[in-house]
From TrEMBL:
InterPro entries: AB_hydrolase_1, AB_hydrolase_fold, Sec-Metab_Biosynth_Hydrolase
Gene3D superfamilies, alphabetized: alpha/beta hydrolase
Protein name from the UniProt record: Esterase/lipase
PANTHER family found in the cross-reference section: AB HYDROLASE-1 DOMAIN-CONTAINING PROTEIN, AB HYDROLASE-1 DOMAIN-CONTAINING PROTEIN-RELATED
Residue intervals of the AB hydrolase-1 domain: 3-222
Top-rank lineage group of the source organism: Bacteria
GO molecular function, one term: catalytic activity
């Protein structure tokens, strides 16, 4: 199975390096992506928006044969959901890594501080304690050294969706910061944060307790959870 790996904010394809070995050892092919504007710290990010990132992943899907699995971390969850909406018949499973689907009209995060067209990685004190669980000083230093400014438009643009077949694509939510029991409570309570997730018809939840970046803090475990979800997927 081809598994397309979509990174979250400030990260490129190399951020999946710790996860790829488990995927490929299981006989699958990993396709980690670097999205527009994330090619380097000096890349031009002017005019790059959420739709550009969705279109880049759609192009990757179109370049492969058969059905694929999409994995989206953090803001990448919004991106893969847009891809599912565009190609619902091509996606065997969507895997949301400490993330979830972003519904019509939603934005990933328009509260992040921008510098022109860029959103630099915020200082650590700008994150919640739950984000930073297991992200020790060495990992923080490595993350900050590799971090690439995020295109502002990707965070601020509204999501636009058109095909309700997206609700029938099987999904796996890998819960890291918040346990899956809390997500179930939010869905039952009608919390808008999980409204789109609550409309999906085939969702499984897997707990992987750690902070917001399991590809750094628990890469082997994350790879194993992804492989297990893929192996449960009919093709």
């Amino acid at each position: 199975m081809d598994i397309i790996l979509v990174p979250g904010f400030w990260l490129d394809a190399s951020s999946w390096a710790g996860v790829v070995p488990a995927i490929e050892a299981a006989g699958h092919r990993s396709v980690p992506l670097t999205l527009p504007g994330l090619e380097s710290k000096d890349a031009n990010r002017a005019g790059i928006g959420l739709r550009d990132h969705i279109d880049a992943v759609v192009a990757a899907v179109d370049g492969l044969d058969g059905k694929v699995v999409l994995v989206g971390h953090s803001g990448g969850g919004a991106i893969i959901h847009g891809v599912i909406d565009a190609r619902p018949d091509r996606v065997a499973r969507a895997i949301y890594v400490d993330s979830g689907p972003l519904g019509e009209g939603g934005v990933v995060n328009d509260e992040l501080e921008a510098d022109g067209d860029d959103i630099p990685l915020p200082p650590w004190e700008g994150f919640e304690d739950a984000d930073l669980v297991d992200l020790d000083d060495a990992l923080r230093e490595q993350f900050r050294a590799r971090a690439i400014p995020q295109p502002k438009g990707v965070a601020f643009d509204q999501q636009h969706l058109h095909d309700e077949r997206r609700y029938d694509v099987p999904a796996t939510v890998i819960a890291c910061e918040f346990p899956s029991a809390m997500l179930h409570e939010w869905i039952a309570g009608g919390h808008p944060f999980v409204a789109e997730l609550g409309r999906m018809t085939d969702v499984e939840y897997v707990d992987l307790p750690t902070g917001h970046w399991p590809q750094f803090t628990k890469p082997d475990e994350l790879g194993s959870v992804i492989v297990a979800a893929v192996d449960r997927t009919g093709t």
